[in-house]
Amino acid sequence: MPSIQDFLTFDRYLTPSIIRVFFLLQAALIAVFGLINVLAALEAMAYSFLPGLAWLLCAIIGTAVGLMAARIVTEIVMILFQNNEHLAAIRARAEGR
Question: For residues 84 and 32, what is the distance between their CA atoms, to the nearest angstrom?
Fold first, then answer.
């Protein structure tokens, strides 16, 4: 179990512990804004069908792309921290700890 000293000396990072929470917050916000856009597009379809339909398609595609982008960025950050941990383990083995 990591101690507070590990975090204060930056031997362990805090970000890998909370990155999943940030991803869930990102995904929730993207989904909420996507839903708002879908509802606005449906309302716009009542006034003008084709622009409303285009807005609806863009809202759905944009939400899907946003969710994928958030996942990809989160995975890249996690990979960077995992690489750092692996390099620290290699260094510790080389130093004989």
Answer: 34
